[in-house]
Amino acid sequence: MGILRLLGSRGMAGYRTAGPVVRPVAATDEAAFIAAAGASRQLHHPWVQPPCDAESFASYLARFDGTVHHGFVIVDEGELAGAINLTNVIKGAFCSGYLGYYAFAGFNGRGLMTRGLNAVVQHAFKDLGLHRLEANIQPRNAASIALAMRCGFHLEGYSPKYLKVAGRWRDHERWARVKGQTKKAAS
Fold it and tell me: Residue 68 has what DSSP assignment?
């Protein structure tokens, strides 16, 4: 599937796939993002806590500098379908970054996150010149693990009490993809 490059804000690229658009999150997304996150609380619990009010959205948006931290949204037919964050990008010998992602309710299970994550992976490897991407996923989050596998990520290990989510330190599996790896994940 071909990807058409679109220009985004702050010098970051946006990508269009066969339907959804992947573009940088913007201040103009605030109302729609907060509404979608609020409607998705049950879907997201206990995996992630996206910003659900103006103050937390402003903090979320301020983090994305287009260099070390990149925030993207997936837009399908004018509605926010999900979010993908590429954070802690380090160049030099490490040349890596970390991914976080979530669909919004009503858009999960439709293949939009697969297309969106593949577009962000392509952006990270081709445009940003990264060598490796890592997604840390809670072991019981079957949907996120399945998405990582569909996008060519491989299980590398287990990190006890790795990230604090919803006030608790939670175990995570480390899933990674290296530039040039085939997309077929190991069974």
Answer: S
